[in-house]
Amino acid sequence: MTVVTTPRVRARTTPALLQHVNLARLLLQTFLVVMAAVWLFPLLWALYEALRPISDTTKRGYFSLPGQPLTLANFVTAWDQANLPHYYLNTLLVAIPGVVVTLLLASLLAFTITKFSWKLNLAVLMLFTAGNLLPPQVIIIPLYWVYLKTPMPHFLSDNGLLYDQYIGIIFIHIVFQLGFATFVLSNYMKTLPKELTESALVDGAGLLRIWANVIMPLCRPALAAMATLLFTFIYNDFFWALLLMKSGSKRPIVSALNNLQGEYFTNYNLLAAGALLAAIPSILIFLAFQKHFVRGLTLGATKG
Amino acid sequence: MVRFGLLTKRDKVLLALIVAFLVLLDLAFIWGPTIASFILSLTNWNGIGAITARSFVGLKNYVTLFTSYLFFKPALLHNLIYLGVLAFVATPLGIFFAVLLDRELAGTRIYQTIFYLPVVLPLVVVGFIWELQYAPTDGFINNALGLVKSNHIIDWLGDPRINLFAVLIAASWRHVGYIMVLYLAGLKSVDPTLREAARLDGANAWQTFFRVVFPVMMPINVVIAVITTIESLRAFDIAYIINRGKNGLELLSTLIVNNSISEANLIGFGSAIAVVLLVISLVPIVTFLVTMDRRIE
């Protein structure tokens, strides 16, 4: 081996080749800079429109340099007029219980199915995974009627139904995301050493205690990754809230944005500000928890 | 993990209850409705009154769908184009970005963040952001191309011949980053000695990727193919906020919703479209399950 490689290694250090390598790197860097600029542009343009007063864009057109100073006025207007704080709150009302309950149930399920023979384990996992892969539109029609017909106790639902209720939206997110979360968490749990749970069991700890005191703390990285992903999935949802929540005022922010469009159809400045405000939580969470994001996605993809 | 036999009787019962409860929940709210979609597709139920023996019309909805419903073939074609563009343009571009960023150039992390950023945005916001690009007189694109000045305005989102492609650019903006992140993680897990060996055998970067890295990454390739297919079958949000999935933006998903919930009460007919979507979706889903089964064995 060394006999073959030595001349090559030497050859790489000759000036001509070095220049060639440098040129290739330069081309690559240029390509990436251009692509990154293209990728960022739509967001930057939205930001630019949002920062310009409507009087300025009316006078000079959108494709122009600013004639008036840029201001945050559109953001303030969108925030107040469109009552955004109210819709953010609606989102949190759905997302927080949605994420917490999904993680609790999914970790419990992932923990328990690793106890069965692999055949049954696989069957359960497949049932959930396949359910999570179904396009939601396949089940929406019967689900809509189930929601209209299922009676609910009044302390959970002010109209006595699943339809048009926070509980209904939370519920469908939990059921739908359970598949993905279980899949990812069971992949993670398979990597934990079995001696840990076995010795706890020998010490007389019950199933639930092992889950709460041994498994959950060990799964913290996977749980953090899943929490980040699930929050974003639920935050970004448009479909379920659009069809299973009738009252516009109860809708989470993303599906409420749909209402803004009609109202401010020609006011692109305000639309841009509203869209960006709705996007900011997603962006902030992503920037803060980027590692968790990537880990969650790759746990789901690489170990299946 | 722990063997089932080691558990106490109480724990065995508890464990069985947990699994049974969650499986029932999944069956009741995911698989039950899936089967109900199929049953409803055989009826002419309009949501009023009960479903009786007389509601059942056999395959009539499917016959109407395949022979006389004007929007079915366009929607099917649009879903196919959606898949084609994601699979042959956006996904390869995402893989290409991943391969480039895997080389650990200066600023890799920043590029990664930028390409991934659109993935975390709600699709509805993606739609709005691109509306600002596509707007006829006020949008960036027509102005930048000088089409507003010369009065040759292109209605990117209104013209049914091109609006699907305009939507696909927005959808790809998001899809590329998603694929990039997944592929990059896969690339990092490839044994570096494989690449080294290929290089020593005189393979260039191109050959190393296609002959060595790509085949080793087959499991990830399957996941990416499945994700790309599912995404194109689920496509709904962008088309719906632009024009409710009409006038060139018909998709199977928007037809289901428009026919049976948001605009009309043709429950049976809409369900037939849902069943068609289900049957197509089974292809990627079964593919995924088969590879999952093989890998665990």
Chains forming the largest contact = A-B, 105 and 107 residues
Q: Overall 3D geometry of chain B?
A: flat
Could you tell me how far the N terminus lies from the C terminus of chain A, measured between alpha carbons in angstroms?
37 Å
Note the total helix count of chain A: 15
- Secondary structural class of chain A: mainly alpha
Order of helices and strands of chain A: HHHHHHHHHHHHHHH
Largest sheet of chain B: none
Percent of residues in beta strands of chain A? under 5%
| Total beta-strand segments of chain A | 0
State the low-pLDDT regions of chain A, or none. Answer: 1-13
Count of individual helical segments of chain B:
13
Oligomer: heterodimer
Portion in beta strands of chain B: under 5%
**What about the largest sheet of chain A?**
none
Radius of gyration of chain B: 24 Å
| SS-based class of chain B | mainly alpha
Mean pLDDT of chain B: 92
Describe the structure concisely for a colleague.
The complex is a heterodimer of chains A (304) and B (297). Chain A has 304 residues and is mostly helical.
Overview of the structural elements:
The complex is a heterodimer of chains A (304) and B (297). Chain A is mainly alpha-helical and 304 residues long. Chain A has 15 helices and no strands. Chain A has helices spanning 2-12, 15-51, 54-60, 73-81, 84-113, 118-133, 136-149, 166-189, 194-202, 207-218, 220-236, 239-244, 253-263, 268-288, 290-302. In chain A, helix 4 (73-81) packs across helix 14 (268-288), helix 5 crosses helix 11 and helix 13 packs antiparallel against helix 14 (268-288). Chain B has 297 residues and is mainly alpha-helical. In chain B, helix 8 packs antiparallel against helix 9. Chain B is flat, with a radius of gyration of 24 Å. The model of chain B has no long low-confidence stretch (mean pLDDT 92). Chains A and B meet through helix 1, helix 2, helix 5, helix 6 and helix 7 of A and helix 1, helix 3, helix 4, helix 5 and helix 6 of B.
